[in-house]
Specification:
By secondary structure, this protein is mainly α. The protein has a domain at 3-70. The protein is 65% helix and 0% strand. It has 4 helices and no strands. The chain crosses the membrane at residues 12-44.
Amino acid sequence: MRTSNLGSYIVLLLIAIGIIVTLINHPLYVIIPVVLFGIIYYCIKRPPAFLSKYSKPQNNYRSAAKQSKAKKERSRSKTIPFKVIEGGRDDNDTPRYH
């Protein structure tokens, strides 16, 4: 058994003893945070009705997205190939500052 494993077990044992003693002596110190955490978790997983209207996309957004997509498809123009312009620079010239 390595010392790091032994140390971990000792720390976990002390944490468990502390939680048990706190539950026996002062149960509200543990129950209130657990209940609050449960309420927050429940609200995240199943939001209340007054918040659910903000999380769903509205029909106006969908219709606007369809219209903009239709405009993009219609406005395609002819593809113009690139034109190569010959420059007057010699290949032997190197820049002054490199």
